[in-house]
Queue: 3 jobs
Job 1
Amino acid sequence: MFLKVHRAPDGAEVVAICDRELLNTTITHGDITLRISESFYGNRPASEEEVRKNLQIASNANLIGERCVALAVEMGFVERSGCIMLGKVPHAQVFRI
């Protein structure tokens, strides 16, 4: 998986995580096109432990791919029914208020 933490001036964090094979690809499903780019998801591989740690402390998370979404489901941050499918690729967003 690849992980990048975006920090806002107010201290909020958005953790962007994607499965390794999806980086630098484009997914099109109906009228939706999603570019999975290094600028948003980063270019440094992250271990499962690092992904877990960042999901636990993130204000928000954006996840694309079967492995990272499954990890968020396992950790109780999202439910599978709350994910959208872009073709065969699950996408989830987590917001902490």
Note: The mean pLDDT is 93.
Job 2
Amino acid sequence: MGRICFQTSRIQFLDEQLLRSCYMTGLEGIAWERELIVSGNRLMIDRQTHESGHFFFPWRTENGLDFMLGTTSLRETKDEYHLEVELARGTLHRLRSYLAERSNQFELSRTYTEKLTEAHERLIEAVFSWRTDFQQAGRSAANAIELCLDVINGLLVEDAGHLMEARHQAGMSNSMFGVKLGRLPDDQEDREVLAQTFDSVMLPFNWKDLSPDEGKFQFFDVDQMLQWSHRHGKKVFAGPLIELTDAGLPQWIYLWQNDFAKVQNYVIQYVQEVVRRYKGRVHAWHASCGLNSASVLGFSEEQTVRLAVDVVETIRHLDNSTPVIVSFDFPWGDYAANRRSDLSPLQFADALVRAELGINGIGIDLSFGAAANECTPRDFLELSRMLRQWSSLQLPLVVGVSLPTAFEQEEGELPAEGFWDITSALNLLRVLRSKPSVQALFWNQLTDGTAQRSGGVLALDRRPKEMLYRLQALSGKIHPA
């Protein structure tokens, strides 16, 4: 068993959930199963290998948000590393690599150059002082990280504008911009605001809600939302049809959780019911989401892949013309640090694409947050790298975003800890939507209160929030007028 050991003053920020989110990867980027040990100001990582690897740690920024940051490749050694120093080194290395690629197109502004220079100086201070002044080294490294993140997130938003301008000059249209529907506002004017903001909708087909009793279905709510979508000329993405989660599975299916063949049969029957009813009435089938990380029924990875194939094949048997997408959550595959997984999310997707089932697009579900079923946010540079990696599948990407946004607040008031302010959320969407491989972008929470957080474009009373009005700017040009 190999061990990597860090000294750090960040232990105070690590609750049980954040500690579980720490992980290491090898050169191939797949998370290793590992054991974490905390002792005083030391964090130790044990894994079943002696290979060098990158360590990823949820860094709490000055504004109270957690971002997953990584080190450069670290070799196993008897000496201890300084966590803050190594995270600063890794973050600065990523930024420098991006700037090297970018320098052929754009010149770095003086403001960013000064911040980059200062980040270098703070890192040098940290490297030379940590053996003699551990706390000061941590402060200097933290300053370097904050400076790098400031440059990364500002620069990537600017570059998103460049990408969108290039797209418009080439005569290309914006990617679709939609919302995952739910219960619509009662007021007709509020419904119109919703209709004016988005050109597409994700029509939910929650198996648990649609079939509370075995063999019986109730589609009234879906039909109402579909009628509203058609009336307003929206592109309709139907699904996901299958999600192997407690929120997505009917209670009666658990009677068969040890019988894969029986569950498989019920999945196929349900998909057949939906496709036969709505064929020709939707613009795309969202076949499944998150099967790569699913563990609630205890199926093997091979069985889960088989279910993903079954869903697509069932759709294609009944409808061979409507586009089909398959979505994946936790696209970095960090869940593999806490349980055995032989396939990374990208490998899972690649296996389905190579099978030539008739998949027309790949979905990436970015549910950011601190809950066990959410992933720690990444900075805009890492998001861009991840999307470029997934675009290697050579299929259009459909990205769904969900994150905890701040409650409505007074002007100048800071958002609650752990919640994104509106400006940061909009910048995230700008960066994602600017990528050429992203064909559609969806906001995945309609109303506040879902998953016990404030992340919707409608308040609990289903009235529009300021967030909805600000999102209208993204329905046309990438920057607000």
Note: The first strand starts at residue 2 and ends at 7.
Job 3
Amino acid sequence: MDSDFEINEHCYQIDTKQWTLPKVGVVYAVKSEKTFLIDTGTSQTNEKILSTLEEFKITPESINTIIVTHEHYDHGAGAIGLLKKMPNAFVSASEKTAEILRNPTEFFETTKRHYGDAAVLVSDYPPVRDVQVVEEGNRFDLGSGVSLEVVALPGHTPGSIGLFEPKTKTFFAGDAVCNYNEEFEFYMPPSFPELFDYENYLKSLDKMQGIDFEYLCMGHFGTQKQPKAKQIIKKAAEVAKEWKDIIVDIYGKTKSEARVYNALLERAGDNEYIKSFPDFIRRSILGQLIRGYVLSLKL
């Protein structure tokens, strides 16, 4: 399946080519009488998003709303660049996400510190002064029976939301599920530090299982259909619990992120996806995911 494609008659997947890699970052468009963009990519991916929208015959002027699913730079940092090209659009987000979109500086610097040697991967995060706050149950009417309902999905971050489009049974989950790479059948919890909450994450996974969707649209690696989609959510919970057991056992005894890293690498290091990354990126990403557990579980 191509990285950029029409999911169904109203929904489109756009590969941002984050870090120049296929499907590492994905945003979505929903088109009816109004057109919404879901997530913004980074400040470095604006042109890729705009060119793909053009391929789908979606003009920048037709975008009515940009919805940011959560606080992280790879979902909100592209907003300012896109708004400059989308004169009729405004930004919507949860209250927690809106706080960071308006004043991202401190959070952005913390993010770069956690990336360590891989901080070069983190794009600029310009502030968005005007953000419309949404909350669970709010509904956007796009016309002709197409709508988006806001679903609160805290865990990956406090401000994470999903969006359900009932006509096409399409659910946009942001990063609330996991990082799932279908090509290598690889699952990785979205436990980035400072904002991750393990217990709420599991509750949000359970909540998503109760939604009647056909398409699951994730912020990394793209779209999955049923029945695979709910199998991914189930497996995400299982992997998250496995990681918790490993981290609690090893970090609880040693207080060593390095030993946890080695244990996780031993568990999954033979996966070709893991092996494809340079060592400094692998250490940065896995180190952050471990730190997210440590902080959330107060180890």
Note: The CA atoms of residues 136 and 151 lie 5 Å apart.
